[in-house]
Design brief:
With about 300 residues, this protein is of the alpha/beta class. Helix content is about 35%, strand content about 15%. It contains ten helices and seven strands. A seven-stranded parallel beta sheet has the order 2-1-3-7-6-4-5, sandwiched between helices. The protein starts with 20 loop residues before the first strand and ends in a 9-residue tail after the last helix.
Amino acid sequence: MIKKTFLSLPEEFIQPQNAYFHVLPIPFEGAVSFRPGAVRGPDAILDVSDQMEYIDEKTRRPFWRLGVYTHDPIPPQDSPALQMETIERYVRNNKLYSPERFVIALGGDHSVSGPLIKVAAQTFKDLTVIQFDAHSDLRDQYHPGGKYSHASVMARALESVDHLIQIGVRSFSEEDLIRFPKQVDNFITPDDVFERFEQTVETILMRATTNVYLTFDMDAFDPSVAPGVGTPEPGGLDWRCAVKIIEAIAAEKNIVAADVVETAPLGGNNVVTEFTAARLVAKIMNAVSMKKIFKSIL
C-alpha cells in the first residue's frame, strides 16, 4: 500500500530528515457532539492535495522545496483521555517541536489540539494561541468527551497558555460568559473582520506575543465556503479574509506550529471542504516559509 503524503511531492522532498514541514494526521472524532465524519478528514485532505499545484499563486515561491514530510496517522484510541495521552506522547517522544521544523496537524475533531498546544507551550516561551473557529470551545466539560470534548479544547488551552485570541466566533455559551467574561469581550467576530478589517488585524497583532500557535477549525468559514464540518454556523469568514489574516500574522509573528481540524467530508462529489482545507494548509506553509532564510532552493 502506497503511503499518502501531502501534495504527493517527488521523493527527494518528502524525507523526514530533510523536511522543514511535518504534516501530522490525527484521525480522531471521539469527542464530537453532533455530525460525525471528522475521523475521515485527514485522509480526505491528503487525497485531494495531490490535485493541487505546488506553487503559491500569490507569492510564486515554491515553499515545498523546504521539504514536506507526512507522518503516519496517530491511530484513534478507545477514549478521549487515552487519545490525548497518545498525541502528547508522540509529539514529545519524537521531539517534533523545534525551530528547525514546522508541524501542522490534520484533524480529526478539535479536541486533538489540546495536547499539541500543551507541548508547544512548554517548548516555546510566552506562546499565544490564535484560534479561528465558529465556536468559543470554552466549556469546562461537554459530552461526549467530558473535559476533552471538542467544545472544551480552548478551556484546556488556557490551562497551558495565558494568551488566547479567538477569531470568527459567533456561538458561545452562558457558561463562557460567566467563567471567561474578558475572553468573551475580546472575541473577534466575523462582523469585526468584515467591517473593520485593517483595524482588526492591527488588534490581533497587538494582542499576540512573538510566538504563536495557530489552530484553525474549518467551521470558522461560512458554510458556503466549507459545508463539510460537524457543526456549521451561518455568518462565517470568507476565504480571502482568513488567508490575509494568517499572512499578516506570519509576517509579524513567529508561528511555531499549527493545526487544521474538523473537516468532516460530505461524501460523493462534494469535496469542497477538503479542497479548502488542503489549500489552507498550503497557504499556512507558504506564509511561514516567507520568513525562512532560503539558500539556493528558492
